[in-house]
Amino acid sequence: MRRALLIIVPYCWLLALFLIPFAIVFKISLSDIAIAIPPYTPTLDFDAGWQGLKNFAKALDFENFLFLTTDALYWKAYLSSLRIALISTLLTLLIGYPIAYGMANAPDHWRPTLIMLVILPFWTSFLIRVYSWMGILSTEGYLNQFLIGIGIISDPLAILNTNTAVYIGIVYTYLPFMILPIYSILERLDGSLLEAAEDLGCSRISAFWLITVPLSRNGIIAGCFLVFIPVIGEFVIPSLLGGSNTLMIGKVLWEEFFNNRDWPVASAVAVILLLILIVPIILFQRNEQRQREAES
Amino acid sequence: MKHLTWFSATSLALGFAFLYLPMIILVIYSFNASKLVTVWAGFSTRWYGELIQNEAFLDAAWVTIRVAVASSTLATILGTMAAYTLVRAGRFTGRTLFSGMIYAPLVMPEVITGLSLLLLFIGIGLDRGIFTIILAHTTFSMCFVSVVVSARLVAFDRSLEEAAMDLGCAPMEAFRFVTLPIIAPAVISGWLLAFTLSLDDLVIASFTAGPSATTLPIKIWSSIRLGVSPEINALSTILIGIVTVGVISASLISKRGAIRRQNEEQAALRA
């Protein structure tokens, strides 16, 4: 009895506030925009009974989805989000792996401090971390002041409001998500394997590629998912650091909802985004579950 | 004993410089006297003074703290229950769906979560305000709590609980006196995580807040969209300071706890 309660309470909470809302998003994506409160039509009329339900179902259509295919803005935004997410995941991996490797190979008594140093930015406000780059990258910002000061460039570089700034912002804010899963695998790596390889004549570098990298595979996969999936829908970074030509679907959805007040189209954008994400999310969840079962 | 190779040392130095330089620059320039943020014009605490007198910021901060305390406490209770279910309940109908609903919010783009919750609140006719932000924050942060707590529960030796029950403890007592103290560090860090996630959230709060409630991130957002401002630098410095003190003291406390446990274990072995 008590066991049942333990399951039911969080289960129902998530059903009501996580799953059912998606059903509502789907329903509204089939509706039409209207000048009313709430700003869409049809709304379900319970008093009209069966007939009301039928009228309601008849008024739903896939018009908004058709609209998404006719306007190039949307599919370009989806593609551009995927590209930005893919490139920035690779960049984060390239920068994060050496850091995780360095942490795992640091003297034991350094490790708690190093972990804390990686986690600390993660606890600091995301918004503030993105904001801190605005002052660095702007035309009269600290980076340009520095580069002009030491004489590398004579004219300031335009970095803020470009895709470069978006990549820098994503790598910077998502780096801890890449470092921590990789570190937790590398830390437990059996050092005798590397010694054995070296005894058998393997060079250090090939031992790294043949042993360390394959064994840290699960950490790399987890880290990449933790960066890739949320970045696709990222809104804050492209809005603050990106320019007018930075197309990302999270930003499109936000503007559709808050600026154009077109809730049905915003919902349709969300439904498609969810369909794109469902495969990576399921793969991520499988990976997590496998890892948990391997540990227990 | 390991020694740092030059490769590890370089990657650590560069990595941490990248992670910390932007925030250090932000902190330094928050003490800049000039209104032009990027031009240094001498030391001053002027912007802190103006910040303290800015009532809109103070109100937003108060709303944010109330939301964070309420949602992280709720999320900790629900998340711990969910973790228990995930680790202990074995197979039950809908288990895959349940674990899917736990893991999906961890990576779900905030715009989708925010939009879907808003449409739910509108659909059931709930007035938007502090209460709806609390519901929204509880929902996504309980998943983070349950991941943190279930990691600890997996490592937990169940025979301790069984021993307590063999010695006559009721299941609830065994939980209260054996399990809870052991998983407490994870529960506390889960709470802290939920608390910071709530403090930090802009997107979900923007969707679910409605016009009546403004949280600190919403307030910060509306002012930085127009560019860097010295007041926001000062505010950021205060927030960075609070987090730094919090994280360092939490890690010192847990380190002391670990040393104490180690001593106790050694004493027990000697006895």
Tell me the CATH architecture of the largest domain in chain B. Answer: Orthogonal Bundle
Could you state the CATH homologous superfamily of the largest domain in chain B? MetI-like
Task: Look at the structure and give the mean pLDDT of chain A.
Answer: 87
Instruction: Specify the CATH architecture of chain A.
Output: Orthogonal Bundle
CA-based shape of chain A: globular
Largest interface: A-B, 92 and 93 residues
Q: Considering DSSP H and I runs of 4 or more, what fraction of the residues of chain A is helical?
A: over 70%
Separation, N- and C-terminal Cα atoms of chain A: 26 Å
In the CATH hierarchy, the third-tier topology of the largest domain in chain B is known as: MetI-like fold
Protein traits:
heterodimer; A: 296 residues; mainly alpha; MetI-like fold; 2 strands; globular; B: 271 residues; 11 helices; 0% strand
Task: Summarize the helices and strands and which ones pair or pack.
The complex is a heterodimer of chains A (296) and B (271).
Chain A: H1 2-29, E1 32-33, E2 40-41, H2 49-59, H3 63-70, H4 72-104, H5 111-123, H6 126-137, H7 142-149, H8 163-187, H9 191-199, H10 204-215, H11 217-232, H12 236-241, H13 249-258, H14 263-295
Antiparallel strand pairs in A: 1-2
Chain B: H1 6-29, H2 46-53, H3 55-88, H4 95-107, H5 110-123, H6 130-155, H7 158-166, H8 171-200, H9 203-209, H10 216-224, H11 230-270
Helix pairs in contact in B: 1-11, 2-11, 3-6, 3-8, 3-10, 4-6, 5-9, 6-8, 6-9, 7-8
